[in-house]
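Reopening this one. Same input as before:
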Amino acid sequence: MRRRKPAGGDTPPDFLNKQPFAEKPSAKLRKTNVDIARHNLEVRLAWFKKETFRVAKEVAAEENEENTREMDKYVRKAFANDSRIIAEWEELMAKIGLVDDVIDD
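Same output, byte for byte:
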C-alpha cells in the first residue's frame, strides 16, 4: 500500500508552527496581495448590487403592494447615489402605479 500525503487541513498545527520560513514576503508582494483582495471585493460588491436590483425588480413585478413598498424603500436608500438605477426603478414604479406614494425617509 502506498503512503499518501495528508489532505488539506490534515497536518497537525504543531507541525505547521515549527516550519522554518526562509524568507519574509516583500512589501511589493504584500501590496500586490492587498490590491488583488481590494479588486476582488469591488467586483463582488458590484455583482451583489446588480443581483440585489434584479431581485428587487422581480419582487416589484409580483405586484404584492406591501413587498413592493418595502423594496421601493430599500432601492431608494441603497442606490441613492446611482441615478441610472433610480431612474430605471422610478420607471418601473410608474408602470406599477406606486410613484405618487413615494415615502422619503
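So the earlier flakiness isn't reproducible anymore. For the record, The helical segments are 13-17, 27-61, 65-78, 83-96.
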